[in-house]
Predict the structure.
Amino acid sequence: MAREAATLLYFGAEKEYKQAKDKAAQTLGTHFLPSNLEVALELDRIAEEQEGEKRKERLIEMRTEALAVMRLLSVFRPVLIGSVWRGTIKQGSDIDVAVYSDEPEAAVTALKAGGVKIAKTAWTTVNKKGATLESYHIYAQTPAKHNLEVTVRASEEAGKKRRCETFGDELKGLNIRELERVLQSHPTQQFIPQ
């Protein structure tokens, strides 16, 4: 089941875990649904099988580009999150960086000053356990043509513990110093629960 759902996600037949799991259950004629973690681990295996060494090279390139972007945004306490942090990238993965500021336009200005071409920006509102959270999203592309999404959250959100909906663990990410250490010592290290 997990492999089937992961296959649907990897090849783009589905975009969301819930829909992929439902479709896999329908295809295989079962009501059992695997956990998001089980699907994510299978998705990582499929990406490794399909992409091999090029995947590792791309991960190092994406982490290096993330570091350059984070340095531009250093005053906003940037944290690398998502599949580039986890080390579970697949074809089409983007670089996700969270920053903290009560003035989102200041992050846009810092990126532009660093030569980053902004494609678009947008406010997003989500409801998490009864709380409404607003964030500002900046979409751009890196020099190596990787998609970049910078999420600007309110300053008060900095340091708050968040749970990863996919892996079920704490969403820690890497700050600038941690990412520098990873790139120096083990640039393809994965951060996934075992």
Q: What stands out?
A: Residues 71 and 176 are 7 Å apart (CA to CA). Residues 36-72 form the longest helix (37 residues).
